[in-house]
Amino acid sequence: MTLTEVWPIFGLVIRTPRLALRLPTDAELAQLAQVAADGVHEPTQRPFLTPWTEQPPLERARHVMQGAWGSRGDWTPDDWSLGLTVFHDGRPIGVVWVSATEFGRRREVSTTSWLGLPHHRHGFGTEARLGALTLVFDHLGGTYATSEAFPDNAASVGVSSRLGYEPDGISRDVRDGEVLISQRLRLSRDRWELNDRSSVTVSGVEPCLPLFGV
User: Fold this and answer.
1) Cα dihedral sign for 53, 54, 57, 62?
2) Is residue 151 one of the residues assigned to a domain?
3) Which residues does the chain have with pLDDT short of 70?
4) Does residue 180 lie in a domain region?
5) pTM value?
6) C-alpha to C-alpha distance for 101 and 117, rounded to whole angstroms
7) What backbone phi and psi angles, to 5 degrees, belong to 89?
8) Among 6, 81, 111, 170, which residue's CB has the most CB atoms within a 10 Å radius?
9) What is the pLDDT of residue 62?
10) Rounded to the nearest 5°, which phi and psi values hold at 91?
11) Would you call 147 helix, strand, or coil by DSSP?
């Protein structure tokens, strides 16, 4: 058997004008880990509730690799998390995570993402999330996508706004003993349909459908 016969998600590829989104090989995963080790935001910023990006470089790299391996091992059709590595010119520059529970019934996903610091402010974040959501809405029959961001995380909020997300309340969490407020954002299918994704292609979906609970 081939790898994609056993785990067909390795054959899933999303292409946008500048990017490719897919599962990485272990060698590519090590390159992605190096991107994380080199930094994904300015030292003065704290954009994530789980402060993995504030760890030393080696720990950041290990976090990325363990997250990728763990998501595959824990995958079930009713509870899955797809870590799509974002490639630009053949090199990993970041990742978009698409996660769902009971997707076959709820048809709803949540997303989170990061890019290496040198790749910020080039529109890659919007392009990558557009690609990931094209899979969700146009090929898996998704109904909603949600995201959360701290109010001062302008990059994440900006991506969501450009793609048509709307306010969906707040979340209150504790980090380092401090209560933090996050903005919840929601994208409906009706709002999604306003996005132009004519330049996005998705291949290798059909063998994956049972793994997504579809």
Assistant:
1) negative
2) no
3) none
4) no
5) 0.93
6) 31
7) 55, 35
8) 111
9) 97
10) -115, 140
11) strand
Task: For tokens 């954009």, name the residue.
Answer: 47
Q: Which residues of 25-34 are buried (b: 16+ CB within 10 A; e: fewer)?
A: eeebbeebbe
Q: What is the pLDDT of residue 85?
A: 98
> What is the count of structural domains for the chain?
1
On whether residue 177 sits in a domain, the answer given is no
Domain assignment present for residue 12? The answer is yes
How confident is the model at residue 156, as a pLDDT?
84
Tell me the one-letter amino acid at 130: L
Domain harbouring 68, CATH code: 3.40.630.30
Contact 196, 133 (CB under 8 A): no
Q: For residues 119 and 91, what is the distance between their CA atoms, to the nearest angstrom?
A: 12
CA distance 198 to 205: 17
Sign of the alpha-carbon dihedral angle for 191, 183, 151, 132: negative
Q: Which residue range(s) make up the domain with 135?
A: 3-142+197-212
CA atoms within 13 A on the CB side of 112: 12
- Give the per-residue pLDDT at 44: 80
Residues 6+ apart with CB under 8 A from 151: 157, 181, 182, 183
